[in-house]
Structure formats: structure tokens, C-alpha cells
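Input/output pair, single chain:
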Amino acid sequence: MAAPAVDSPADPAADPLDAALERRVRAILALGGVPQADLPDGVQQVRLRLLERAAKGQEAPRDVAAWAAVVASNLAVDWHRSRRRQERVGERLASLRTEESDAGEDVRVLSVAVAQGLDGLPAPQRQVVVLRFYADLQVREIAERLGVPEGTVKSRLYTAVRALRALLHEDEVV
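Output:
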């Protein structure tokens, strides 16, 4: 069976995934452990990435079905990573709540000190710290959203964390 061709960018209304390819993407996502409720979003992500390629003027993949399978597989992996990240954040929050009863005042003092430290950072550094540690995005995701290289994000994070650490030690908060 031949892979469906992607219509040219001149026809933005054309759907790059035919019904058979969409079923295949759904199956790959499901086999990858993505819940049934999230499958439509995964299919849309594959479709969107294919349309973005066309919008950027890139050639369509030689084998769209194989390309879509790889993208769907990567999305399933990303879904699991995101889920584990959310679980870790939940565990951290739960442990904070437990510790809050024991050391409630310490947590509040630390929270205020970190907030004040964030206010003192330059906007680009504050932005990457908030996206990384509060929104729990990965460096790659932050770079994509901000439209900067990953190295820039890493550099800003490194500088900001060092500044916050120095401030917290200087104020004897930690």
C-alpha cells in the first residue's frame, strides 16, 4: 500500500493523514500506552507536525506512513515522561504538605525568599526558571516556546540558579 502524499502547502485545507494512516497512528499511540482519551490529541499532534513541515517549505517525508509512525512513537514516549513528571511534582507537593505541618514556617520563609530572589533576576532568567521549575517544562520545550537555542536556555538557567543559590545562602535562608 502506497503512503499517502501530502498536498502542497498551497492547499492548507487538505488533510495530510488519510483514514488508514490515522488508524495506524492511533494504534501506535495506544500500543505505546497512551490512554484512549488522549489518542485524538496524539493524532492531531502528528497531523500538526506534518502540516508544519509543509508550512516551512520542507519536502514531505518519502514515506509518510513510516514518518508518522516514528512521530507517534515519540509522542507516546513524551506522554509517559510528562506523566512521570506530573507524578513527581505531585509527590513533591504531597511531601511539602506533610513537611508543612512539621516545618510550615520554614517552607513559608523559603517560599518568600525564593519569590524575592526571582523578582531580583533579569526577566529572561526569571522566565526560564519559572518555565523550568514551576511549569515543569524541559529545556527543549522552553527553547521552542521562547524561540531561542537550547544552549541559551541552559545558560540562563545556570546563571539564574547560581544567583538564587547565592542569595539564599547570603540571607541564610538555606
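Helices lie at 19-31, 39-55, 64-120, 123-134, 139-146, 150-170. The CA atoms of residues 84 and 90 lie 10 Å apart.
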